[in-house]
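Entry:
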Amino acid sequence: RALRAVGTNRDITEHKRREEALQLAALVYQHSSEAMMVSDADNHIIAINPAFTALTGYESADVIGKSPGILRSGRQEPEFYRAMWDSLNATGRWQGELWNRHKDGSIFAETLSINTIRRPDGAVHWYVALFSDITAKKEAENLIWQQANFDSLTLLPNRRMFRDRIEQDLKKS
């Protein structure tokens, strides 16, 4: 026969909610169709998701600890990146389109969104980048522009292009 019983009671509901929220965040990160990359305050890559590998061809071992500049295609001027960093430093975010390079060296267009995650003291903790391939969209836009402005048989500028250039020259003069 037991003479005494000692026990404790603690409500772990909030702990379980946080645990589920972390599991959900991990699932979203791993299964997102958008490529994700996280870099530290010194702009060294610390994590990528499977969509990053599928899009760029780079595995974790290829990029962890390196700068995101490993993807640079060389199509953007240094001023482009300076403006991007100015925006990131001023507002904590940047969004736009740029050209990057796959592991095999081929170039692709992407739409990129970068957000800054700050520590409680305001210092930069992480940069989170989400991007997707828009190469097919850019190629379609270029094809439409070509078809609108050039003769398909001779590849010479058409009447529309001629009028546009004349109007520009008239405005200049």
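The first helix runs from residue 13 to 31.
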